[in-house]
Amino acid sequence: MTAFKALGLEEHLLKAIADLGFETPSEVQAKAIPILLERETDMVSLAQTGTGKTAAFGFPMLQKIDVKSRTTQGLILSPTRELCLQITNEIIAYGKYMPGLNVTAVYGGASITDQARQIKKGSQIIVATPGRMKDMIGRGLIDISKIEYCVLDEADEMLNMGFYEDITEILSHSPKEKSTWLFSATMPKEVSTIAKKFMHTPVEITVGTKNVGSDQVSHEYYLVNARDRYDALKRLSDANPNIFSVVFCRTKRDTQKVAEQLIEDGYNAAALHGDLSQSQRDTVMKSFRARQIQMLVATDVAARGIDVDDITHVINYQLPDEIETYTHRSGRTGRAGKTGISMVIVSKSEVRKIYTIEKMIQKKFIAKEIPSGMEICEVQMFHLANSIKDTKINHEIDAYLPNINEVLADFSKEELIQKVFSVEFTRFLNYYKNSKDLNVTGERNFSEEENKDSTRYFVNIGNKDDFDWMSLKDFLRDLLQLGKDDIYKVDVKDSFSFFNTDTTHQELVMGIFKDFKLDGRQINIEISKDTGRSKGRSSGGGGRDRDRGKRRGDRNDRGDRGGDRGGDRGDRGERKGSFKKRSSGGFGGGDKPAFKGKSRSSGTDRPDTKGTGGRRRRKD
Ligand code: ADP
Ligand code: MG
């Protein structure tokens, strides 16, 4: 508490902070609050999700506004409705001892007249999503011509979502003389562009390193064949009976398919994506918060509003297209001081991306194996034993006990345990008995195929020229005018460096460096013999061919990509059912295989199963 006081906050805010139970300021709060209180300045603040950014701008804004005036003085723009509501509630909680404070949330999907009415009463602070805000300004329902403080929260997310034009339009209605505070978890080019455009010599604050993941999160990857993705997902869930997770897919379609398939297989799963109506999304989020859903399958865009603190696992069912997105995904876990695990299910053709992500987050991934069926059985049995141990006895069953006791009278405790576990696990064991190993051998097995299209270069600039891998990558990208993932495996040594591009760019690279000088020094570039594979990664070709052969053997010919699709139901053993599937619930439920008689594509394109909540399993 004294720590908050030392930042310069007023008594009424300190009281609210005490009520909230915050004891010490987080790093971003400690860095930003004193500066924002003291000076009228623009600020760019980079910090991971879950580091307390809302309070970092919320407290200074509350302290600076004039609550006696009805004029709108502060505007906070945030990417999603969920975040908008969350920030509104936080600000209201921080300002609980400020009589007359009026904070209004402005977002799409709710009555515009209600919001306009609330604003007319006089809101000192408006928290808004860009789309609705622009709309209301356009209709003359909101006047921001006198704002003094403007926050762009989750700026990277807003830009990702295509709000650049809306933001520009909104800010054109605000006065030039104001302080703009930009908060973001990552700093892609687009964010620096916006900072340059709207801000004047902003103070920069960085918590941790740019784009670096939280320390609370460990990162694991699982190398599987693309067609085994779904089975791998199920096993990861089965091996973690108390999982409470967000599963990320690349597209709405995959999200929907994977969720439906999980529900069908008896998991507590649901989909969250942009094709759901707002009320469907609200229902899903409510069930997720209440933990009736253990696996929330989501697109990146839809997951932006997720502010649930105890998520145990983030599962990257597929890697995102934009590498930076990985930071956002993994930031959904390890929040508020808790630890979390970010898992990536990766196929060989993408494993290179793991390396790129490691460089970005500056943390190593642990290469893990998908647990075998028997390992999972063991975990589950142990889990059941513990659940039994921890179960509170329900005395409503007392009346039935004499009869039950009579039926079971002849058995010893040992026999009863055996029987209980057999009831629960016979199906389970049968399901996993002949399950195959889903792991692909060869750690980080960069295939020949992949390397043949990639060129590695040697260049005589390095650390001593003040480059690190990130700045060299940026430098090359600007110089060559290439996209952000076109330069990879950037390895900076003291006086030289290596990097790769696809071979298609080789001419461009060699051309530009032909007669290139940096600070007057001639820069040499050569094509390197080394392909960028490091030791131990090249156990290679044989294994791959073996897999290929197997693949042909046990599935229809439908090309590699098909296996990436979540809803793809092969006719192989493991997908035919799930031990979770219970037709009657409780011990020893049904035996019918989950997918019997189903055609491959049914269940994935049905229009009205846009799924909210899954079946409930017994609560642990
Ligand atoms: P961000 O915007 O950086 O993702 P939030 O502002 O949403 O993070 O804060 C994440 C969580 O941490 C919230 O539940 C918030 O109430 C809590 N929190 C923020 N600051 C503190 C603090 N100083 N001490 C304890 N909890 C805090
Ligand atoms: Mg936030």
Short description:
By secondary structure, this protein is of the alpha/beta class.
Ligand list: adenosine-5'-diphosphate, magnesium ion
- The number of domains: 4
Give the amount of beta strand, in percent: 5-15%
Question: What form results from the Cα inertia axes?
Answer: globular
CATH class of the largest domain: Alpha Beta
CATH homology superfamily name of the largest domain: P-loop containing nucleotide triphosphate hydrolases
Enumerate the strands of the largest sheet in spatial order, edge to edge or round the barrel. Answer: 3-4-2-5-6-1-7
Architecture overview:
The structure is a single chain. The chain is α/β, with parallel strands linked by helices and 620 residues long. It folds into 4 domains: 2-206, 3-Layer(aba) Sandwich (Rossmann fold); 217-372 and 580-607, Rossmann fold; 373-425, no CATH class; 452-547, Alpha-Beta Plaits (2-Layer Sandwich). Helix content is 38%, strand content 14%. The chain has 23 helices and 20 strands. The strands form 4 sheets. Strands 3-4-2-5-6-1-7 form a 7-stranded parallel sheet, with helices on both faces. Strands 10-11-9-12-13-8-14 form a 7-stranded parallel sheet, sandwiched between helices. It has a 4-stranded antiparallel sheet with strand order 16-17-15-20. The chain is globular and about 85 Å long. Residues 443-450, 534-577 and 581-620 have low confidence and may be disordered. Bound molecules: adenosine-5'-diphosphate and magnesium ion (MG).
